[in-house]
Amino acid sequence: MAKKGIKKKRRNKRRAVQIIKNQEIEKNAVPLDKKPDRKKPFLIASILLALAAVFLAVFFIQIPPKKIIPDSGLNVLLITLDTTRADRLGCYGYPRAKTPNIDFLCQNGVQFLNAYCPVPLTCPSHCSILTGTTPVYHQVRNNGSYYLSPEIQTLAEVLKTNSWKTAAFVSSFTVDSRFGLDQGFDTYDDLLSPNLPYKGLNSERRADAVYSSFSRWLDENSTSHFFSWVHFFDPHIPYDPPSPYREEFLDNPYDGEIAYMDFYVGKIVEKLEEHDLLEKTLIVLAGDHGEAFGEKQEEWHGVFIYESTIRVPLFFYCADNFPSGVRVEARVRLIDLMPTVLDIMKIQVPEEVQGVSLLPYMGGKDKQDLSTYIESYYPRENYGWSELVGLIDGTYKYIQAPRPELYNLSLDPGEEKNLIEEENKVAQEKKEKLENIIKSSISPIVTSKRALSFEERERLRSLGYISASESPSGEELPDPKDRIDELLMIQRARDYESEGKFLEAATIYEEILALRPNVAESYVNLALMKTEMREFDETVRILEKGLEKMPESEALLSRLGHTDMLLGRRKKALDTFGLVLKNNPRHFDALLASARILDLTGQKEDAQNHYRKALEVEPENKVARKNYASSLASTKRFDQAISIYIGLKKDYPDDWEILQYLGIAMGLAGDVSSSIENLEKAASLHPNPVAYYNLAVGKKQMGDLEEAVRYLKLYLGNPEGEKEETINIARAELQNLEATLKTKR
Questions:
Q1: What is the C-alpha to C-alpha distance for residues 381 and 468, in angstroms, rounded to an integer?
Q2: What is the pTM of this model?
Q3: Looking at residue 385, what DSSP letter applies?
Q4: 489 inside domain
Q5: Do 144 and 193 sit in the same domain of this protein?
Q6: What is the mean pLDDT of the segment spanning 52-66?
Q7: How far apart are the first and last CA of the chain?
Q8: CB within 8 A of 12, min separation 6: which ones?
Q9: CATH number for the domain including 264?
């Protein structure tokens, strides 16, 4: 990361003190080859004592840190580091880290050494970051199953009301706009892999793509007073950093993902410097949750609420408004981020916010640990096991479960010894305090849990959130600690799947299916492995076996419909998707797939109706928009098609296919000049016979026969993929045009 914009006055003051010490030592040192003057022992002793006093004074005197200066004129940049353990960053003491950019911001800002997330899952944790409330209040308890209520104010909404321009750039489906995190953002960029039609294939994007989106936005909005949120998802499983990080971190790709992410943190700072904004911007970096590497037998995150997955990095950097090199040891929470930012901006904090401003901690006025609520409903909703809720209070962590747990974190940071029996009185006190916190945190806002659609399950699955749960009933659920063997099976199957070892994964999924024969996901998980192994008949057999037990299962029907499409069984696929839409008329995958089948079989009106309904659900979906426009053009509804293509061109100005389709539609509509303009740009981006042929037609219509001849020759030079009939027409036309030009000469 470039540091040229960092002034000397912003460097750590203690470093300046150390330089002074070294100069004093060198100036007063006695040369080794010179004997001391024995005639002046008392004078020398006096001098040495005086020097010692000066030395000690310099050593112990701390130059007071620069005061915190609240400033409503600052920009705010929130960078969230998904799945990032605090102890895997250099500034938190990890010797193998390659995180110079994160470390630089951390070491020159205010670092919180003991920050905690409320839940080890991306969506609910970010809801807490953006609202300053716990999951008990905002009621988002899992990925994909909840909406953040519009009645709860977000940081973006508060800042937007106070005239900040707001923009977010996220990298995972878990924080898709459909879950309500877009509240208050003027721009919410959650386009991940827009060229993929189905969201099960479109679940995340790398740091380079997120940075590029942010960079373009900042170039256009650098003079605005802004709040921007940049979300990096890279350290999430599967760990697969790009080169050269892949090769450098072959033995630990998780560290490679963090190093890759760090590079783009540096690029963001460089971009701020480029626009002379670094000194005018408050930068907040926070992890949303950690990651387990076998601690307490958990791999990954979500099930348990132990230290490995809930302790996160958190620090604030603001060059001219914050002290440098401050380390805060007190326990704080991610729910404290929002009120802290508003305090710095001198904006009143909404009443419902449950966090507190951390400015007193930054200034050294407050050093008390904050009581911290933690939870995970993931085991209940994904595996049919009991949820876990807990409290970190003082030196103790209490976890409420069918078999409760109590740990003294100061003596047992690894949570090895459960003190629930030995310190029953402490456990009872913490349990009562936890219950009181929950009661006082309950929101008056009524929200309902939403059912996951098949495509949403597929997207979460692609991120590793594999479900194997029956709908939890009223009976007492098992403690996740008592399902370790089953958890290990699920983790092992997921790992095999991410490594492409589908046979091994299928073997384990068969065992899980035997354990859970009444769970739709058990059949889907196994069927997906059979599909990966190209055993399509087995895929169909497994899904149909599941449908015998659960004939209305959306997950099974949707997967069967996709399999039938893959096998070319259009009629059967259309019927299957019809059953899905009967139960869920807004099922995006079923709408888009049905539209495509209807389009290909010539049922244009029905196809276009399905496209419209699909775009009501996913209005930004690139493939649905392109297919709909193409269908409209095929029925000579050129004005409607052109309108959609123009919108696509605005969103994707360098997509040659969009430019090409737009050019063809404009030509058919009679706007030949605009048609040529778009076709020429498409051909410059991606030379191809279709563009050349249509340019030849357009140039002839404009009377430019020489250019028409040139494009026909380009077309005939490589007409790969073109119909023989079209090639013959082009040859004949070329002969006619060349004859006409020869006559004119």
A1: 9
A2: 0.72
A3: P
A4: yes
A5: yes
A6: 38
A7: 63
A8: 107, 108, 324, 325
A9: 3.40.720.10
CATH of the domain at 508: 1.25.40.10
The one-letter amino acid at 89 = L
For residues 215 and 357, membership in a common domain is answered with: yes
Residue 166 in domain: yes
Mean pLDDT confidence for 86-110: 94
Q: Which residue has the higher pLDDT, 111 or 181?
A: 111
Q: Is residue 738, in this structure, part of any structural domain at all? A: no
30 vs 280, residue with greater confidence: 280
Beta strands in 49-190 (DSSP E): 75-81, 110-116, 165-169, 187-189
Amino acid present at 487: L
208 vs 53: CA distance, rounded Å:
54
* Residue after which a domain boundary falls, among 567, 584, 615: 567
Tokens of 298: 């958990």
- The Cα–Cα gap between 256 and 88 comes to 11
Structure-token pair, residue 723: 């119909």
pLDDT in the model for residue 295: 87
Any domain includes 696: no
- CA triple 138-142-148, angle to 5 deg: 35
Six token digits for residue 445: 């806002």
CA distance 567 to 563: 6
Sole residue written with tokens 């609520």: 373
Which residue is it, tokens 């000469």?
Answer: 745
Nearest to 590 by CA among 581, 582, 602, 601: 581
Q: Residue 512 carries which side chain, given as an amino acid letter?
A: I
pLDDT at position 233 is 86
Residues 473 and 326 in one domain: no
Pinpoint the alpha helices (H) of 635-723. 638-651, 656-669, 672-685, 689-701, 705-717
Question: Do both 52 and 96 map to the same domain?
Answer: no
User: Of 507, 506, 511, 508, nearest to 527 (Cα)?
Assistant: 506
Q: Which residue has the higher pLDDT, 116 or 565?
A: 116
Q: Per residue in 491-538, pLDDT tens?
A: 889 889 888 899 999 999 999 899 888 888 889 999 999 999 999 999
| Average pLDDT over the chain, rounded to an integer | 85
304-363 per-position pLDDT tens digit: 999 999 999 999 999 888 888 899 999 999 999 999 999 999 999 999 999 999 999 998
pLDDT-based confidence at residue 201 (cuts at 50, 70, 90): very low
Do 392 and 365 lie in one domain? The reply is: yes
Mean pLDDT value of segment 616-624: 86
Domain count, the chain: 3
Same-domain status, 197 and 316: yes
- Neighbour-count burial for 685-715, b at 16+ CB within 10 Å, e otherwise: eeebbbbbbbbbbbbbeeeebebbbebbebb
Instruction: Give the residue carrying structure tokens 């920050």.
Output: 115
Report which of 645, 142, 602 is spatially closest to residue 375, judged by C-alpha positions: 142
**In the structure, what pLDDT confidence band is assigned to residue 300 with cuts at 50, 70 and 90?**
confident
What is the distance between the alpha carbons of residues 104 and 193, in angstroms, rounded to a whole number?
Answer: 32
Query: Above 70 in pLDDT, residue 7?
Result: no
Q: What percent of the chain has pLDDT over 90?
A: 63
Do 186 and 291 have their domain in common?
yes
C-alpha to C-alpha distance for 191 and 210, rounded to whole angstroms = 10
Specify the range with the lowest mean pLDDT, choosing from 188-197, 426-435, 529-538, 645-654. Answer: 188-197
Is residue 315 classed exposed, middle or buried when 0-12, 13-18 and 19+ CB atoms within 10 A define those classes?
buried
CA–CA separation, 9 and 472 (whole Å): 59
Owning domain of residue 331 = 75-440
Taking only the tens place, the pLDDT of each residue in 331-341 is 999 999 999 99
Determine the Cα–Cα distance for residues 740 and 487; give it in Å rounded to an integer.
77
CB-facing half-sphere around the CA of 280: CA atoms within 13 A = 15
Q: Are residues 115 and 222 in the same domain?
A: yes
